[in-house]
Amino acid sequence: MSSAFFQNIIRFITLILLQIIVFNNINLFGYLNPYIYIVFLILYPVNANRYGLLIAGFLLGLTMDMFSDSGGIHSAACLCLAYLRPFAFKVAFGLSYEYQTIKISKEPLVKQIVFVSIAVLIHHFVLFMLEAFSLALIGKALLKVLFSGIITLIFSLLIINLFSAQKK
Amino acid sequence: MQQIIGFIIRNGLGLLFLLLLGCSLWLTVNHYSFHKSKFINSSNAISGTVYSQTSSVSDYFRLKKDNEALYEENLRLKKLLLNEENSHLIDENAAFPDHTIQVIPAKVIRNSYRSQQNYITIKGGEKQGIKPDMGVINDKGIVGFVEYTSDNYATVLSVLNTKFQTVAKIKKNNHFGTLSWNGKATGFMQLTDIPRLTDLKKGDTVVTGFSSKAFPENIPIGQVESMFLDKKTNNVTLQIRLFNDMTNLNYVYVTDNLHKKEIETLEEKTVQDE
User: Fold this and answer.
1) Which among B20, B42, B116 is the nearest to A66, CB-wise?
2) What percent of chain B has pLDDT over 90?
3) Would you call A58 and B155 a contact, using CB atoms and an 8 Å cutoff?
4) How far from B74 is each of B69, B77, B80, B82, B235, CA to CA, in Å?
5) What are phi and psi of B108, to 5 degrees?
6) Which of A71, A102, A138, B203 has the most CB atoms at less than 10 Å from its CB?
7) Would the CA dihedral through A47, A52, A55, A57 be positive or negative?
């Protein structure tokens, strides 16, 4: 229990640092960045306490908001992802997920892609809608959801599979 | 009472979600609606330290480019100075009696330009004399306003922020307008409320106006790129191409008008007396 707790804290700090030092400076095509820090919420233990997940998600978003001066948009996006995560599990892995421990990196790639896509879509949709904050800019925000979402998906899958390769 | 407790226990997860979502939406709305009422920002010690460490590493990769930029700026200033009589005799520490503009050096340790609400974090805070509402410029033009300060760091509201607004004028004929950003392209800003009959050409230079209290007068901003007529007000909106590359900032100067308070008090008094 406590080893899983420390593993989560280390993952939290590593992903935040990776995000702000490396991935926030990628600027693909001028303004697209992958938001890989949400891998933390994807890899959070499946059967863990959902209250804990909500609070962890909120703290993760709040830390990102602090580093990027963005009010509370990352907090809101992470919170929605943390709350809706069981729904994404149900869609990707079927109803039986609750009764067994799923290791995401050991699942077939297609199921991984479905699960991570849903997670990224929820997070990016809330994030960029709140960022645009006005209807005039909604078109640009939707394009950002799409393009930024695709590169986040690619990088997240890479990170998930690299992280687990180390532990084998 | 029992029913209420039961309800809370049964729907605890949803309630916690709504509570935390409320918190983050409140932070967001607060951040977007009011100038300077921020609870979470990157001028604190943790993110300040992380960003200044990162920037001390990345500085090595741009040493050559920065040197060239500094050399060019030096050259321009030398040209001005050497054409002035006895300029080399001025004692640097002498107090200038008519000295109203204060300049404090600072360094950008984080820059953002991708969202609609962009902020810059600089190394330099209250200990260096930086206070909220001061202007931030560099050798090419304006950068933003100081928004929030801590001991050693400050956050700057970038010109690329839809909340940013300042007074600017066309250099050749002194017509004033309001400069702001529509949140679209990083290289362009919009100058609104210019009277329709103003003589304008593509390529005219736009500079800061004298009634903008944070910036000194005649700091360059950009060039007129194109113009549109606003049919409702019969005023012209100008698309301004910025001189400054906002995606590439390093050393900046924080400026303050020492008479700002005096001007503001006087203006307030005038309005009250009416």
Assistant:
1) B42
2) 8
3) no
4) 9, 5, 10, 12, 40
5) -75, 125
6) A71
7) negative
Task: Give the pLDDT confidence score for residue B93 in this predicted structure.
Answer: 52
Q: Which residues of B touch A50 (CB under 8 A)?
A: 13
Helices A2-21 & B45-58 angle (0-180, nearest 10): 50
Q: How many Å lie between the alpha carbon of A120 and the closest alpha carbon of chain B?
A: 18
B240 pLDDT more than 70:
yes
A152 vs A162: CA distance, rounded Å: 15
Domains of chain B with bracketed CATH: 39-91+102-274 (2.40.10.340)
**Residue B19 sits at the chain A interface (C-beta within 8 Å):** no
Question: How many whole angstroms separate alpha carbon A67 and alpha carbon B79?
Answer: 42
Q: Model confidence over B163-194: pLDDT tens digits? A: 888 888 888 888 888 899 988 888 899 988 88
The answer to whether B16 contacts chain A (CB < 8 Å) is yes
What pLDDT, in 10s, does the model give residues B114-128?
788 888 999 988 998
Å between A107 CA and nearest CA of chain B: 28
Q: Which neighbouring-strand residues pair with B127?
A: none
d(CA B134, CA A78): 34
Distance from the B14 Cα atom to the nearest Cα atom in chain A, whole angstroms: 8
**pLDDT over 50 at A168, yes or no:** no
For helices A50-68 and B12-33, the axis angle rounded to 10 degrees is 10
For tokens 């060039």, what's the residue?
B223
* Yes or no, beta carbons of B28 and A72 under 8 Å apart: yes
Q: What is the pLDDT of residue A165?
A: 55
Sequence-separated (6 or more) residues with CB below 8 Å from residue B88: B81, B82
Query: How many CB contacts within 8 angstroms connect chain A with chain B?
Result: 100
Question: Strand, coil or helix: what is B223?
Answer: strand
Q: Is B115 on the interface with A (CB under 8 A)?
A: yes
Specify which residues B169 forms β-bridges with. B176, B207
pLDDT, tens digit (0-9, with 9 covering 90-100), for A35-87: 999 999 988 888 778 888 999 999 999 999 888 888 888 999 999 999 998 88
Q: Where are the domains of chain A?
A: 2-167
For residue B12, give Cα distances in angstroms to A61, B1, B32, B175, B180. Answer: 21, 16, 30, 60, 45
CA B80/CA B133 separation, integer angstroms = 30
DSSP A28: B
